[in-house]
Every structure is written in C-alpha cells, then in structure tokens.
Amino acid sequence: MSFGRVTGGDNGTLDGRLERILFDQAAIRERIAGMGARITEDYGGGDLTIVAVLQGGVLFLADLIREIRLPLRMDSISVASYHGGTASSGTVTFHQSRLPDVEGRDVLVLDDILDSGRTLGAILERLRAECRPRSLRSAVLLSKRVERAVPIEADYLGFEIGDEFVVGYGLDYRGEYRNLPMIGVLKREWIDDRG
Ligand code: IMP
Ligand code: MG
Fold first, then answer.
1. Which residues contact 11 (CB under 8 A, 6 or more apart)?
2. Which fold has domain 15-187?
C-alpha cells in the first residue's frame, strides 16, 4: 500500500490554485477575535443561540464561538443558493423542514458571505416568522460591495470585498476549496465557464 500522491497536477497544493490571497489565516483570526469581543459585550446576560448557515458558515462558526465568552447554544440551518457556478441562482432552497428551536432566545445567524442578500434575507425572514426569537441579528465574515437584490446588511461584519468570486475558509467553488485556511480568488484555469 502506498500513501504517496493520489492525484497530480497544480504543483500539488490547493493554495497553488489561487491567483490572489485576500485574507490569510492570521488576518482572519484577528478579525474574528474582534468580532467575538464585540458580540461578547453586546450579548452579556442573554440566552444566545448561534445559528450557522451550512455549509459555508462552519469554519466561521467554529472560530467565532471560541471568541465569544458567554454561555451559548449552537444550531444550524442548511440552504443552497448557488447551484454549482459562480453566480447566485436567485432561489434559496431550504434543505430541512426542521427549523432551530429558538423561541424566546437571542439569535445570531452566521453566514460566510453576503452577496445578493437573498440567502440571509430568506433565512432571517423564516426565523422571524416561524421561530419567535426574542431578538434576531446576523454576522457575516465577508460582504460584497454590490447592489443587493434583497436590501440587507449584517449586524456584524468581518471584511468588505469587491464584486469577485472568492473561495476558502468555508467558501466553495462546486463543493471544493472550503478547507483552504485563507480566502482568495481562484486562477481562471480552475473555473469552468461551461456552466
Ligand atoms: P446571496 O444569497 O447572493 O447573498 O449569496 C450568499 C450565499 O452565496 C453565501 O451563503 C455563499 O454560499 C454563496 N456565495 C456568494 N458569493 C460567493 C463567493 O464569492 N464564493 C463562494 N460562495 C459565494
Ligand atoms: Mg453558502
């Protein structure tokens, strides 16, 4: 049995597929520490539930909750708004019928990135209408500086970026690259324009 390289190409590294790094691991860590400190101040004494949007929000969730020095609960919600490409499809599909049990609680929804606003907009609307939280806010690691289809801004923001497609730290292209510890832009050769 061999534990050598299974597949070749791209000089062997996933990072080698990036054309540009926007935020490295240290920058992300520092920013999330700042966000966690603010959230800790804002929510002292509450009954906080963090609801992560799967799957992109998972890394953000894991790092952010360790910077929040308060008792809290964790839950998740699974949606898809991209269907394989690099542009939002315009529809938000909920993958589960069970919504988080957060009645009377302070809810903070986490997502990786705010783009058209459809995903976060749909989630906040459903939680507000069906879950009766005491309060409802949102936190995103990234926000694209674009005109939103649904006018919404997050209450807590990591970084603002331009209108470009990014991967890493939870963000995927066709299901991959979520495990990159940094956030960056893929080289053109790794993006399939055929659809
Ligand atoms: P929105 O509904 O257009 O605001 O898009 C939000 C969702 O689309 C996020 O939860 C991401 O999953 C995905 N998304 C938006 N922009 C990017 C990107 O640049 N890279 C990877 N995923 C993205
Ligand atoms: Mg996503």
1. none
2. Rossmann fold (3.40.50)
Residue numbers of the chain with a pLDDT score lower than 50:
none
Ligand 2 center from residue 166 Cα (angstroms): 12
Cα→Cα distances 120→24, 107, 113, 161, 175, Å = 25, 13, 9, 17, 20
Verify whether residue 24 is a known catalytic residue: no
What span, in angstroms and rounded, lies between the C-alpha atoms of 108 and 136?
A: 6
For the chain, the domains span: 15-187
- Ligand 1 pocket, residue 43 CB under 6 Å: no
Cβ–ligand 1 distance for 17 under 6 Å, the answer no
- For the segment 115-129, what is each residue's pLDDT rounded down to a tens digit? 999 999 999 999 999
State the pTM of this model. Answer: 0.91
